Amino acid sequence: MTRPGAASSLSAPSSFSLRRYQSDISSHSHDFAQLVIPLDGPLEIEVQGQGRRLAPGFACVIAPGERHDYAADPALSFLVQESHWLPEALGERPFILLDEPQRHYLAFLHQMVRQGRHVVGMEQIWLNLLAQGQGMGPTLAPRMTRVQRHIEAHLAEPLGNERLASVACLGQSQFKHAFRQQFGMSASHYIRGRRMALARTLLSHTQLPIGEVASRCGYRDQGAFAERFLAETGLTPSRWRQQNGPQP
Fold first, then answer.
1. Across all residues in the chain, what is the average pLDDT?
2. Looking at CB atoms within 10 Å, which of 46, 114, 122, 131 has the fewest?
């Protein structure tokens, strides 16, 4: 859903924002997909003919062109994602119960959006995480499923298009096209997002030296890792650990 009063014809990038809504019922549609996630209270919403009092712990997926009615207490806040791309079949299920990994990643997204930060690929990673958590992972082509599993198992190693195309049994140009079609981004962006997600997890939940974290995330040079982490999150690895890591 767009901001109350916004024109339904607006197009939207794949982006997140924090929003509040009005207590009076509003109704509209738009030509891009939207996810609405309550953060601190419920949203009354009807989409695809299904009405729901959407509470925190759930997400609502609104497919492009789908008309929806909604209302909420103006004091409540919602994380909203607008995107021109959805994983296949995700839009067929308007209401999603978030599992533990999704709630964990949602907390990260909320923090990043609230602080005005952005990690390349975090929008697409979130969409894929939702799809896989709902048992929709098999909608990926078998070749791309093999590639995805290979990436997750080998984040510490070089992962170029030549190697991944070989895993998929495709030529490089075919692989690049197929990967972007399935994941909504290039393989390099997807891998970088997964490596940065792993880095944040290791920094937050372990006391591994930063050099070891860099190595496990595919960076042979700690300086290059720190530079990329700073560009992605706005914080150095050591500062991220100070703010989010385990207490000594």
1. 83
2. 114
